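Project outcomes to date are best conveyed with an example. Our students and postdoctoral researchers have been running inverse folding experiments weekly, and each run begins with a structure described purely in C-alpha cells. The record below, which covers 221 residues, was selected by the lab manager from last quarter's runs and is presented without edits.
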C-alpha cells in the first residue's frame, strides 16, 4: 500500500523520536523547518504533529513551542494488526466509518474551537480549489476528517478512527474514483464545515452520514 504524505510524515517524525534524534524533552523544530526538510506542506506537518500529540508522543504548548514528551508512548503501533488485514472490503470500511464519523461531526459542532472551525472551513475550500485545478487533494481530504475527529474532543472515538488510518487512506483512493464522487465529496465538506461553524450538531451528523452513505450506495450498485 502506497503511503500518503500525511502517513509518511507521521512515520518519519515518530522515527526521529524512536532513534533518539529528537530525545525526550527536546524542542521540536518549527513547522516550516520540518516541512522544508521533508518536502511536504506545513499543513501536513501540523496535522501529523497533532496526531502524535493525541497519541502521547509530543506536547504542543501554544506560545512556547513543541516538545518531545519525557515519556513518549511509542512502544506499540496501534495499527500493526490492522496492517495485516489486506482483505477488508471497501464496503466494510465505509460501514465502519458510518458508525463513527457522523457522531464525531455532531460532537465537533458542539466542541470545536474557533481556530479549529476556521481551519475546517479553510481545508474544505482548499479541496474545492484543488478539485477545480485538477491537483491532488487526498492529503487535504484526510486532514479535514482528522480535524473533525480531533475537534470532537472524544478521545476514545478519536483513537478508534486513528487506529484504522492506513485503511482510511487507501479507501479514499478507491472511493475518489467513483463517478462524480470527488465533486460531491468537496461539496459535502463545505456543507459539513458550515454546519460545524454554525454549531448545528444534528445537521453536521446528517451531512456526514449522507456523505459516507453516498459512497456506500454507489459501491453497492
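After processing, the design step wrote out the following sequence:
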Amino acid at each position: 500500500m502506497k503511503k500518503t504524505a500525511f502517513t509518511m510524515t507521521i512515520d518519519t517524525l515518530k522515527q526521529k523520536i524512536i532513534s533518539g534524534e529528537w530525545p525526550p524533552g527536546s524542542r521540536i523544530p518549527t513547522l516550516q523547518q520540518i516541512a522544508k526538510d521533508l518536502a511536504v506542506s506545513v499543513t501536513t506537518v501540523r496535522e501529523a504533529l497533532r496526531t502524535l500529540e493525541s497519541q502521547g508522543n509530543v506536547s504542543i504548548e501554544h506560545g512556547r513551542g513543541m516538545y518531545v514528551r519525557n515519556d513518549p508512548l511509542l512502544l506499540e503501533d496501534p495499527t500493526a494488526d490492522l496492517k495485516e488485514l489486506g482483505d477488508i472490503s471497501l464496503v466494510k470500511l465505509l460501514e465502519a466509518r458510518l458508525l463513527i464519523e457522523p457522531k464525531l461531526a455532531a460532537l465537533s459542532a458542539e466542541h470545536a474551537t474557533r481556530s479549529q472551525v476556521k481551519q475546517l472551513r479553510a481545508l474544505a475550500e482548499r479541496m474545492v480549489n484543488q478539485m477545480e485545478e485538477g491537483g491532488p487533494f487526498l492529503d487535504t481530504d484526510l486532514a479535514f476528517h482528522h480535524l473533525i475527529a480531533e475537534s470532537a474532543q472524544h478521545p476514545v472515538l478519536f483513537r478508534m478512527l486513528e487506529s484504522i488510518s492506513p485503511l482510511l487512506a487507501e479507501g479514499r483512493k478507491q472511493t475518489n474514483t467513483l463517478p462524480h464522487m470527488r465533486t460531491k465529496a468537496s461539496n459535502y465538506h463545505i456543507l459539513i464545515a458550515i454546519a460545524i461553524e454554525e454549531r448545528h450538531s444534528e445537521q453536521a451528523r446528517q451531512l456526514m452520514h449522507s456523505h459516507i452513505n453516498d459512497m456506500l450506495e454507489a459501491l453497492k450498485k
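The chain is about 65% helix and 5% strand. The longest strand covers residues 58-61. The training component of this project remains on track.
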